[in-house]
Design brief:
Shape: globular
Strand content: under 5%
Strand order of the largest sheet: 1-2
Distance between the termini: 16 Å
Number of strands: 2
Order of helices and strands: HHHHEEHHHHHHHHHH
Helix content: 55-70%
Structural class: mainly alpha
Largest sheet: 2 strands, antiparallel
Length: about 400
Amino acid sequence: MKQEKHSEKQFNIKSFFRFAEKGTNVDMPLLIITITLLVFGLIMLYSASYVKGLYERGDSLHYIKDQVIFAAAGLVVMFLAAKLDYRILRRYSFLVLGITYILLVLVFFMPEINYANRWIVIPGVATFQPSEIAKFAVILLFSDWIQRFGTQKMRTVKYGIIPFLLVLGSVAALVILEPHISATLIICAIGAIMMFVGGTDERFFIIGILLVVAAVVMAYFLNPAGLWDRAMGRIVAWQNPESDLQGSGYQSYQSLLAIGSGGLFGLGLGNSRQKHLHLPEPQNDFIFAVICEELGFIGGMLVICLFLALLLRGIYIAFKAKDKFGAMLVVGIISQISIQAFLNIAVATNTIPNTGISLPFFSEGGTSLLMLLGEMGVVLSVSRYANLEKGE
C-alpha cells in the first residue's frame, strides 16, 4: 500500500466524477468476475425460485422480476461509483453513519415481517433492510479512522480500540434487537478484520478471544433462561439433522438431500426436485443447494472458485491502492462478501449450524444486491486510481 505524498486534495464538481482517461481504466479482471457473478446469480435465482413463486404467489416470475430491476439499478450505481474519486467518501463517513442510526431505529416503528423488525417499508414502492447499509457505514468510517489515526495511534487503546468498539457495539446492538443475528455476526466480523489489518495491537484480539471463551464457560455453568440447553439442542440437530426432521434438523436435511442428489454434473438447469416446496427458502438461504442439485459438484465448485477469485483480486487491489483509506475500503468490502459467501455455503453443506445468511449476488434481496454492486463500484474506483499511479 502506497501512502499519499501530499495532504488530502480539495475536491470540486469537476473532480467528483472523473471519467475514464488514459491510464485510468478500472481493473478488468475484477469487473469480469463481478458481472459473471451477477449474471450467474440471476439465472440461478430464476431457476431456484419459479416453483415457489408459482405455488405461493401465483407468478413464476415473482422473485426474479424485482431482482432484475435492482440488478439494473445496481449496475448503474456501480459504474457511477467506479467513476467517482473514492477519496471524497471520507467527507461523508459520519453522515452515512448518522443516517444508518436513524434507519436502524426507524425499523422498530415498522410492521413486523416474519416476527422481526428488519425492514423499512415504503408502501407501493419497496422494502429494504438498513442492516445492509450499516455494513457499508462501518466499512467507510473504519477506513477513514484507520487512515486518519496512522500506525502508531492504532496500537493504542485510546485510538485503536475505544472509538471502534463504541461504533461497532452500538450498531451491532441495534441490529441484534431487530433481531438479525446473522447480520450482527457479519458486521462484527468486518469490524474485527478491519481493525486487525488496520494495525490494532494483536494483544487486544487475544484478550477478546479469552473474554469470549470465558463468556461461553459462564453460559455453560449458569445456563441463564435455558440458553445453553437451547444452544445444545441446535448443535445436536446440526450434528445429526435426522434426529429432528420435524424441527431444527429439517432445513439442513433437505439441503443435504439436494446437494447429494446432484452428483458430479447435476440433474440439469431447472430440474431440481427439492425446490418443489421441500427445501425451505430455495431462493434465498439455500440457493447453493439448488445450484449443486442442478449443476452438480462442478457447478458448486464454480461458484466457490468465483468467490475465491473475487477475494484474491480484492487482496491484490488493496495492496496496490493509492492510500490506506482506499486499501481499507477494499479490505472491508471484500471481507463482507467473502464472509457471507463462506457462511452461506457452510450452512448449506451443514458444515456449521443454520444461521440464515444469504449468498451474495445469488440470493433474492434487492437491497443487498444494490448495495453489493455499489460497493463493488467503490472497489473499482480504488483500482482505477491504483492503475493510474502505476501508469505514471
